[in-house]
Specification:
globular; NADH Oxidase; binds flavin mononucleotide; 6 helices
């Protein structure tokens, strides 16, 4: 597992770069089955971090690796087996179309956008060797499985892809922005009713690493006991 050359295979949790406050060295958890899976989970999840698409360059994952990443997405929890998400790969020869959708979306919001701003919007579609648009599938309506549940499943699918990319030695980042809600993007992606683009996933080789700035929240900040 080539995650980060600075992270030793059997690391002390307190030295895990990127993990910031997670996990603390004084908080030990031992697997109940002796499988060693906990060490892998702690290393993999604790060291994953967002990498800006600006810092993601070729090579990206190859076809087999991409297939493997989507198989990880398929392992997301999914109440009712609805697959309430799908992913649209935007290959190199279609990036200009995506860039144009971003630029037109900006013009729709701001008719006074300057040529430089429009070029910047277009350029965003050119970043990174693998660019995938994550699309939420919020229909057909099911009384028991609402939008929030579907989004939980989608988030898990995305996280599986991010962790898989990280485990393969790539960097990955999510980007969104107001263009996600634009009819221009919906038209380009030929979205069906109740399909909503949520974010782009960009995966590639990290050209320059930046240490995480913010520490992770401590469990006490988000966990209580009834
Ligand atoms: C749905 C979604 C959309 C995001 N969109 C952006 C974005 O547009 N720009 C950006 O810099 N980061 C974006 N992020 C990444 C977060 O900024 C990042 O995950 C956060 O800073 C925490 O950093 P970490 O991923 O390294 O833990 C997005 C994350 C999510 C979950």
């Amino acid at each position: 597992m080539a995650i980060d050359e600075d992270v030793p295979a059997h690391h002390d949790a307190s030295t895990c770069r990127g993990a910031a406050s997670t996990p603390r060295a004084d908080v030990r958890a031992e697997p109940t089955d002796g499988s060693g899976a906990w060490d892998i989970a702690q290393l993999l999840i604790g060291s994953r971090q967002h990498v800006s698409p600006k810092r993601l360059v070729a090579p990206g994952p190859d076809a087999l690796q991409i297939e493997a990443l989507f198989m990880l997405a398929a392992a997301a929890p999914d109440h009712g087996t609805l697959t309430p998400w799908r992913f649209v790969i935007v290959p190199a020869d279609k990036r200009a179309l995506l860039g144009e959708a971003f630029a037109q979306a900006l013009l729709d919001r701001d008719p006074a956008a300057t040529p430089a701003q429009l070029d910047a919007a277009r350029e965003k579609a050119q970043r990174g060797p693998l660019l995938v648009v994550a699309v939420a599938r919020l229909g057909p309506r099911e009384a028991d499985i609402g939008t929030l549940e579907r989004m939980v499943s989608m988030g898990a699918a995305i996280q599986n892809i991010l962790l898989g990319a990280h485990a393969l030695g790539f960097g990955a980042g999510l980007t969104s922005g107001r263009a996600m809600g634009s009819p221009r993007l919906a038209a380009l992606l030929a979205l069906a009713d109740a399909e909503v683009p949520v974010c782009c996933i960009t995966i590639g080789t990290v050209s320059r690493r930046k240490p995480r700035q913010q520490p992770r929240p401590a469990p006490s900040a988000f966990v209580s006991t009834l």
